[in-house]
Amino acid sequence: MNRYWLKIGVGALAVFAVGLVIWSMVERGVHEVQDLADSDRAISIPLLGIVPFNVEGRQAGRIDRITLLRDAPKQISGVVVRVGRADSLPADAFAGCTFTVKDPAHLDENTEFRCLKDPAQLAGFESFGEVRIATPGGVIVRRIVLPSEVIADLRDPSNFDANVEGGQLEDEAAAAVADSIGAAMEQFAESVSRAATLHAESLTAEGKKRAEAAAARVRAADAGAHGGSSTTVKVGP
Fold it and tell me: pTM for this one?
Protein backbone atom coordinates (compact mmCIF):
# COMPACT_ATOMS: atom_id res chain seq x y z
CA MET A 1 0.00 0.00 0.00
CA ASN A 2 2.92 2.34 0.72
CA ARG A 3 4.11 1.81 -2.84
CA TYR A 4 0.67 2.82 -4.10
CA TRP A 5 0.77 6.14 -2.24
CA LEU A 6 4.35 6.65 -3.39
CA LYS A 7 3.17 6.29 -7.00
CA ILE A 8 0.43 8.86 -6.39
CA GLY A 9 3.00 11.26 -4.93
CA VAL A 10 5.34 10.78 -7.88
CA GLY A 11 2.41 11.32 -10.26
CA ALA A 12 1.44 14.57 -8.53
CA LEU A 13 5.04 15.75 -8.72
CA ALA A 14 5.12 14.92 -12.44
CA VAL A 15 1.90 16.91 -13.03
CA PHE A 16 3.42 19.87 -11.19
CA ALA A 17 6.59 19.62 -13.31
CA VAL A 18 4.55 19.48 -16.51
CA GLY A 19 2.64 22.57 -15.38
CA LEU A 20 5.88 24.46 -14.91
CA VAL A 21 7.06 23.40 -18.36
CA ILE A 22 3.78 24.53 -19.95
CA TRP A 23 3.98 27.88 -18.15
CA SER A 24 7.52 28.46 -19.38
CA MET A 25 6.41 27.52 -22.90
CA VAL A 26 3.58 30.07 -22.73
CA GLU A 27 5.99 32.76 -21.55
CA ARG A 28 8.40 31.89 -24.35
CA GLY A 29 5.53 31.66 -26.82
CA VAL A 30 4.59 35.32 -26.35
CA HIS A 31 8.03 36.38 -27.54
CA GLU A 32 8.05 33.84 -30.37
CA VAL A 33 4.69 35.12 -31.67
CA GLN A 34 6.08 38.64 -31.79
CA ASP A 35 9.21 37.40 -33.55
CA LEU A 36 7.05 35.56 -36.07
CA ALA A 37 4.96 38.66 -36.77
CA ASP A 38 8.07 40.69 -37.50
CA SER A 39 9.62 38.09 -39.80
CA ASP A 40 8.89 36.66 -43.24
CA ARG A 41 8.45 33.11 -41.93
CA ALA A 42 5.39 31.11 -42.97
CA ILE A 43 2.29 31.35 -40.77
CA SER A 44 0.66 27.99 -40.09
CA ILE A 45 -3.04 28.09 -39.14
CA PRO A 46 -4.56 24.84 -37.78
CA LEU A 47 -8.13 24.13 -38.87
CA LEU A 48 -8.21 20.68 -37.20
CA GLY A 49 -10.43 19.12 -39.84
CA ILE A 50 -13.37 21.40 -39.03
CA VAL A 51 -13.55 22.71 -42.62
CA PRO A 52 -14.40 20.20 -45.37
CA PHE A 53 -12.33 19.99 -48.54
CA ASN A 54 -15.03 20.30 -51.20
CA VAL A 55 -14.19 19.80 -54.86
CA GLU A 56 -17.00 20.63 -57.27
CA GLY A 57 -19.77 19.44 -54.98
CA ARG A 58 -17.91 16.43 -53.58
CA GLN A 59 -16.26 16.24 -50.17
CA ALA A 60 -12.79 14.78 -50.63
CA GLY A 61 -11.45 15.06 -47.07
CA ARG A 62 -11.09 17.65 -44.34
CA ILE A 63 -8.74 20.63 -44.24
CA ASP A 64 -6.29 20.17 -41.37
CA ARG A 65 -4.15 23.24 -41.85
CA ILE A 66 -3.40 26.17 -44.14
CA THR A 67 0.03 27.74 -44.31
CA LEU A 68 0.48 31.29 -45.54
CA LEU A 69 3.88 31.74 -47.18
CA ARG A 70 5.47 35.18 -46.97
CA ASP A 71 8.26 37.08 -48.65
CA ALA A 72 7.90 40.05 -46.26
CA PRO A 73 6.34 40.50 -42.79
CA LYS A 74 3.01 41.65 -44.25
CA GLN A 75 3.07 40.18 -47.73
CA ILE A 76 1.63 36.76 -48.62
CA SER A 77 3.46 35.01 -51.44
CA GLY A 78 1.58 31.73 -51.52
CA VAL A 79 -0.58 29.25 -49.63
CA VAL A 80 -0.35 25.54 -48.80
CA VAL A 81 -3.61 23.71 -48.01
CA ARG A 82 -3.12 20.41 -46.15
CA VAL A 83 -5.98 17.93 -46.40
CA GLY A 84 -6.48 14.82 -44.29
CA ARG A 85 -9.21 12.20 -43.69
CA ALA A 86 -9.14 11.33 -47.39
CA ASP A 87 -9.01 7.57 -46.86
CA SER A 88 -11.40 6.82 -49.71
CA LEU A 89 -9.30 8.61 -52.34
CA PRO A 90 -7.02 6.57 -54.61
CA ALA A 91 -3.42 7.72 -55.09
CA ASP A 92 -4.23 8.91 -58.63
CA ALA A 93 -7.19 11.05 -57.53
CA PHE A 94 -7.44 14.40 -59.29
CA ALA A 95 -4.89 13.33 -61.88
CA GLY A 96 -4.18 16.24 -64.18
CA CYS A 97 -6.02 18.68 -61.88
CA THR A 98 -4.90 22.17 -61.09
CA PHE A 99 -6.99 23.60 -58.27
CA THR A 100 -8.42 27.05 -58.00
CA VAL A 101 -10.56 28.59 -55.29
CA LYS A 102 -12.20 31.94 -54.79
CA ASP A 103 -10.11 32.97 -51.76
CA PRO A 104 -7.62 30.49 -50.23
CA ALA A 105 -7.02 32.74 -47.21
CA HIS A 106 -10.70 32.55 -46.16
CA LEU A 107 -11.83 28.93 -46.01
CA ASP A 108 -15.11 27.73 -44.48
CA GLU A 109 -17.68 24.95 -44.95
CA ASN A 110 -18.99 26.66 -48.10
CA THR A 111 -15.59 26.95 -49.83
CA GLU A 112 -15.56 25.12 -53.16
CA PHE A 113 -12.38 24.14 -55.01
CA ARG A 114 -12.48 23.68 -58.78
CA CYS A 115 -10.42 21.22 -60.77
CA LEU A 116 -9.02 22.75 -63.98
CA LYS A 117 -7.70 20.25 -66.54
CA ASP A 118 -7.97 22.09 -69.84
CA PRO A 119 -4.92 24.33 -70.44
CA ALA A 120 -7.28 26.90 -71.95
CA GLN A 121 -8.94 27.24 -68.51
CA LEU A 122 -5.64 28.42 -67.02
CA ALA A 123 -5.50 31.60 -69.07
CA GLY A 124 -5.22 34.61 -66.76
CA PHE A 125 -4.26 32.44 -63.76
CA GLU A 126 -0.98 32.35 -61.85
CA SER A 127 0.45 29.76 -59.46
CA PHE A 128 -0.08 30.61 -55.81
CA GLY A 129 0.72 27.48 -53.82
CA GLU A 130 -0.45 23.89 -53.60
CA VAL A 131 -2.90 21.45 -52.09
CA ARG A 132 -1.37 18.46 -50.26
CA ILE A 133 -3.84 15.59 -49.76
CA ALA A 134 -2.81 12.75 -47.44
CA THR A 135 -4.21 9.40 -48.65
CA PRO A 136 -3.42 5.77 -47.72
CA GLY A 137 -1.43 5.50 -50.96
CA GLY A 138 0.66 8.61 -50.34
CA VAL A 139 0.42 12.39 -50.49
CA ILE A 140 -1.22 13.91 -53.56
CA VAL A 141 0.22 17.31 -54.45
CA ARG A 142 -1.63 19.62 -56.84
CA ARG A 143 -1.02 23.25 -57.77
CA ILE A 144 -3.27 26.11 -56.74
CA VAL A 145 -3.76 28.85 -59.32
CA LEU A 146 -5.62 32.11 -58.88
CA PRO A 147 -6.57 35.02 -61.11
CA SER A 148 -3.84 37.64 -61.26
CA GLU A 149 -6.04 40.31 -59.63
CA VAL A 150 -6.81 38.01 -56.66
CA ILE A 151 -3.09 37.38 -56.15
CA ALA A 152 -2.41 41.11 -56.26
CA ASP A 153 -5.04 41.63 -53.55
CA LEU A 154 -3.57 38.87 -51.37
CA ARG A 155 -0.07 40.27 -51.74
CA ASP A 156 -1.18 43.78 -50.77
CA PRO A 157 0.34 44.50 -47.30
CA SER A 158 -2.69 46.59 -46.33
CA ASN A 159 -4.86 43.43 -46.55
CA PHE A 160 -2.47 41.23 -44.57
CA ASP A 161 -4.16 41.41 -41.14
CA ALA A 162 -7.60 40.70 -42.60
CA ASN A 163 -6.26 37.72 -44.56
CA VAL A 164 -4.56 36.18 -41.52
CA GLU A 165 -7.60 36.69 -39.31
CA GLY A 166 -9.84 35.25 -42.02
CA GLY A 167 -7.76 32.11 -42.15
CA GLN A 168 -8.50 31.31 -38.52
CA LEU A 169 -11.50 29.42 -37.22
CA GLU A 170 -14.80 31.21 -36.84
CA ASP A 171 -16.27 31.43 -33.32
CA GLU A 172 -18.66 28.48 -33.78
CA ALA A 173 -15.96 26.27 -35.27
CA ALA A 174 -13.51 27.21 -32.52
CA ALA A 175 -16.17 26.43 -29.92
CA ALA A 176 -16.71 23.02 -31.52
CA VAL A 177 -12.99 22.32 -31.33
CA ALA A 178 -12.89 23.45 -27.69
CA ASP A 179 -15.86 21.21 -26.85
CA SER A 180 -14.22 18.19 -28.47
CA ILE A 181 -10.94 18.83 -26.63
CA GLY A 182 -12.83 19.30 -23.37
CA ALA A 183 -14.73 16.04 -23.87
CA ALA A 184 -11.49 14.21 -24.62
CA MET A 185 -9.88 15.61 -21.46
CA GLU A 186 -12.90 14.53 -19.38
CA GLN A 187 -12.67 11.01 -20.80
CA PHE A 188 -8.95 10.94 -20.05
CA ALA A 189 -9.52 12.09 -16.46
CA GLU A 190 -12.24 9.47 -15.99
CA SER A 191 -10.01 6.72 -17.37
CA VAL A 192 -7.16 7.76 -15.03
CA SER A 193 -9.52 7.81 -12.05
CA ARG A 194 -10.97 4.44 -13.01
CA ALA A 195 -7.51 2.94 -13.42
CA ALA A 196 -6.42 4.29 -10.02
CA THR A 197 -9.55 2.85 -8.39
CA LEU A 198 -9.02 -0.55 -9.97
CA HIS A 199 -5.39 -0.50 -8.92
CA ALA A 200 -6.32 0.35 -5.33
CA GLU A 201 -8.98 -2.38 -5.31
CA SER A 202 -6.52 -4.92 -6.66
CA LEU A 203 -4.01 -3.97 -3.96
CA THR A 204 -6.72 -4.30 -1.30
CA ALA A 205 -7.81 -7.68 -2.66
CA GLU A 206 -4.21 -8.86 -2.80
CA GLY A 207 -3.60 -7.71 0.76
CA LYS A 208 -6.74 -9.48 1.94
CA LYS A 209 -5.71 -12.65 0.14
CA ARG A 210 -2.24 -12.55 1.75
CA ALA A 211 -3.73 -11.94 5.20
CA GLU A 212 -6.10 -14.89 4.79
CA ALA A 213 -3.21 -17.08 3.64
CA ALA A 214 -1.12 -16.00 6.63
CA ALA A 215 -4.01 -16.74 9.01
CA ALA A 216 -4.46 -20.16 7.45
CA ARG A 217 -0.79 -20.93 7.97
CA VAL A 218 -1.02 -19.87 11.62
CA ARG A 219 -4.06 -22.09 12.18
CA ALA A 220 -2.30 -24.98 10.49
CA ALA A 221 0.78 -24.45 12.66
CA ASP A 222 -1.35 -24.30 15.81
CA ALA A 223 -3.16 -27.46 14.84
CA GLY A 224 0.14 -29.24 14.26
CA ALA A 225 1.57 -28.05 17.56
CA HIS A 226 -1.41 -29.27 19.53
CA GLY A 227 -1.39 -32.58 17.75
CA GLY A 228 2.34 -33.17 18.42
CA SER A 229 2.11 -32.38 22.15
CA SER A 230 -0.72 -34.74 22.95
CA THR A 231 0.13 -37.48 25.54
CA THR A 232 -1.37 -40.85 26.32
CA VAL A 233 -2.24 -41.46 29.96
CA LYS A 234 -2.04 -45.09 30.95
CA VAL A 235 -4.38 -46.09 33.72
CA GLY A 236 -3.03 -48.85 35.95
CA PRO A 237 -4.88 -52.08 36.73
Answer: 0.56
